Amino acid sequence: MELRQLRYFVTVVDEGGFTRAAEKLHVAQPGVSAQIRQLERELGQPLLDRSGRAVRLTQAGSAVLPYARAALTAVDGARCAVEELTGLLRGSVAMGTLPSCAPLGVADLLASFHERHPGVEVTLTESDAGTLLDGVRDGGLDAALVAFGGSAPEGLATQTVLDEYLVAAVRPGDPLAGRDTVPLRALADRALISLPPGGGMRAILDQACTAEGITPRIAFEAGDPGVLADLASRGLGVAIVPESTARDRADLCGVPIVRPRLRGTVALAWRAAGPSGPAAQAFLDHARTSLAGFTVAAS
Q1: I need a surface site. Which of 10, 228, 241, 289 has the fewest CB within 10 A?
Q2: Residue 236 sits in which domain range?
Q3: pLDDT digits over 18-59, tens only?
Q4: Ramachandran sector of residue 250 (left: φ over 0; alpha: ψ -120 to 50; beta: rest)
Q5: What share of the chain is helix, strand, coil (3-state, %, to 5)?
Q6: Is there a single domain that holds both residue 80 and residue 169?
Q7: pLDDT, tens only, 64-120
Q8: Which bin fits 223, alpha (ψ -120 to 50), beta or left (φ > 0)?
Q9: In this structure, are residues 93 and 279 in contact, taking their beta carbons and an 8 Å threshold?
Q10: Is 194 in contact with 240 (CB distance < 8 Å)?
Q11: How far apart are CA 66 and CA 229, in angstroms?
Q12: Which Gene3D superfamilies does the annotation name (predicted)?
């Protein structure tokens, strides 16, 4: 069994097929297929089901995958440890983020880390909160900016970046604009403007509506809270946004939602067991320092 075979196997799984894996590895596809077949012969079981249009893991493949990942991580960690002693950090880091977290300076964070450690390959994935949390837990992501309500997700360590109440944002002149607060039930018949399903802020709204027996009337969805605010400022509905988003807009009135109060947290999350290697540790230290300046707490 060779490390190359394990790397090819993991890449095929991650890329969803032999063609994309070969492109990722910069090798010919027949070479990837041959190495994985050799691995399967050594293990005595097929690891991949090739019968359909998409390559799928067999039961044996699912059992082998975490060990293959662990072996590659260990080798990469050993290599990085030696290179770190010589003053040159190498390796790879995978970060995830919600689309709505762009204003937190994600691009600057990645650029400044690359400037410090040009030998580390950094990748960025945008997705919904649930997918990102699963990615951090299973090792596909080293860290992610996620949103959630209540306590921190199980199995993860977090650093809070934003901790805010959600408000109903409307343009001046709207019937809600002069109110001090608005009960969630009072929004049942209003056209709401919200993040799409899967986002942490949307999950908080959906869970609260379910608990109150309300079916929200979502008229517009967008992945950026700034876009939600723009739509509300044009009178297209009530935007459910973080308090700071409405507070920074002269063309919006942010009305606190009560009964219940809706509160969300945006945090940097990573595995509670710690980073997978020196490169990931360096990135996590850099990210935690960079994001510390964005901290906003609910009042």
Answers
A1: 289
A2: 161-265
A3: 988 888 888 888 989 999 999 999 999 999 998 877 888 999
A4: alpha
A5: 45, 25, 30
A6: no
A7: 999 999 988 888 777 766 665 655 577 889 999 987 787 788 999 999 999 988 888
A8: alpha
A9: yes
A10: yes
A11: 43
A12: 3.40.190.290, Winged helix-like DNA-binding domain superfamily/Winged helix DNA-binding domain
Same structural domain for residues 165 and 82? no
- What Rg do the C-alpha atoms of the chain give, in angstroms? 23
**Count of the separate structural domains present in the chain:** 2
Output the six-digit token pair for 130: 């649930």
**Count of C-beta atoms within a 10 Å radius of residue 190:** 18
pLDDT at 85: 60
**Dist. CA 146–CA 161, nearest whole Å:** 10
CATH code at position 170: 3.40.190.290
Alpha helices, H only, 125-267:
129-137, 200-212, 225-233, 243-247
Q: In this structure, is residue 151 part of a structural domain?
A: no
Task: Quickly tell me which residue has 């399903």 as its tokens.
Answer: 197
Select from 86, 102, 122 the last residue of a domain. 86
- Whole-model pTM? 0.62
Cβ(62)–Cβ(91) below 8 Å: no
Residue 174 in any domain: the answer is yes
Is 7 part of a structural domain of the chain? yes
Residue 105 lies in a domain: no
